[in-house]
Amino acid sequence: MGRGKVTVLEIMNNPQAIKEDREKAIAFMEMKGDIRGLSLIADYEYVRHKLGEEGVRKVEKEMALLGHPLPLKEIKQMEFYSIGYAGVIELAIERAHSFTMEDYYEMGRYAPKSSVILKVMLKYFASLDSAIVQATNIWRKYYTVGTLEATEVNEKERRVIFRISGYEIAPSTCHVIRGYLTQVTQMITGEQVASEERSCTFRGDPYHEIVLTW
Question: Which CATH class is domain 110-213?
Answer without folding.
Answer: alpha beta
